[in-house]
Write a structure and sequence with these properties.
The protein is α/β, with parallel strands linked by helices. It has a six-stranded mixed sheet with strand order 5-4-3-2-1-14. It has a six-stranded mixed sheet with strand order 6-7-8-9-12-13, covered by helices on one side. The protein has a two-stranded antiparallel ribbon with strand order 10-11.
């Protein structure tokens, strides 16, 4: 099975300017496709911006809203899958969500962030209640989490037990927590034997300072590709043969003793 070439878009776009962010996503998709990528991953809430305050209700839209239609057109025109973050409206509730659009423009998966970080998110968003959301892309089982979710090892292990090969984590990782990008993400990939694509915003935005450092970590705990602190598009390979060999050599999932872990729940 061939590798899944994956592009990580590290950018904050223009907070509050959906049309400008869609243009940036389109340009990134063109560059990613030219580099042979079959998947482009953008950061948390990329469609609208993260630090948009009381504009959240105004900019939130349904999972099949105009933003989804625009991203579907981008994905189909460039022939690659696109994961984008957005505020999802469902009736009176708003979720911090990400949606995976396939290379044919079809909607493959939609995930709602389950662990909300800080006062801003807890004020505007409702937490999701579904831990494992997956889709298949070119023979790879892709799973979705968002930012703070990946800092809970139970979430990642749930994905490992459900067969996730590549975990996509759009994020808004801010100073002074850059150790998550530097250290936690490679460890998560190793301990649960999967690839993890962690894709961050960058630079100042409202009261936040995003640290960049987006990365694709492999199941051996090494980083396959890493962005710096600024706007950047980086590309890495998700190799299913290497993943299978790593899982065969690493006994973590086989050697688990679930009967001892009841207190964790």
């Amino acid at each position: 099975m061939p590798s899944l070439r994956t592009a990580l878009l590290q950018s904050s776009g223009r907070p509050g300017a959906v049309a400008e962010n869609l243009k940036a996503l389109d340009e990134a998709a063109a560059r990613a496709a030219d580099a042979g990528a079959r998947l482009l991953v953008s950061p948390e809430l990329f469609l609208t911006g993260y630090a948009i305050g009381d504009a959240v209700p105004e900019l939130a839209e349904p999972a099949d809203g105009p933003g989804a239609g625009a991203v579907a057109e981008i994905a189909a025109r460039h022939g690659l899958a696109v994961l984008y973050g957005y505020p999802e409206r469902d009736g009176e509730r708003i979720f911090n969500a990400s949606q995976l659009i396939g290379p044919d423009g079809g909607r493959l998966a939609n995930y709602r962030k389950t662990h909300l970080f800080g006062c801003f998110e807890q004020e505007w968003f409702t937490p999701g209640d579904r831990t494992v959301v997956q889709a298949d892309l070119d023979g790879i089982r892709v799973g979705l989490l968002i930012c703070y979710d990946v800092e809970f090892p139970e979430n990642v292990r749930a994905h490992a037990l459900a067969g996730t090969d590549l975990l996509l984590v759009p994020t808004a990782q801010m100073h002074p927590f850059q150790f998550v990008a530097e250290s936690v993400i490679p460890v998560r990939a190793f301990e649960s034997q999967m690839y993890v694509a962690y894709v961050n915003r960058t630079g100042p935005e409202g009261e936040f300072e995003f640290v960049g450092l987006s990365c694709l970590a492999g199941p051996d705990g090494t980083v396959r590709t890493r962005a710096g602190r600024g706007e950047e598009l980086v590309v890495g390979e998700v190799d299913p043969e290497f993943l299978a060999a790593s899982r065969a050599a690493n006994p973590y999932l086989h050697d688990r003793r679930p009967g001892l872990y009841g207190s964790l729940a």
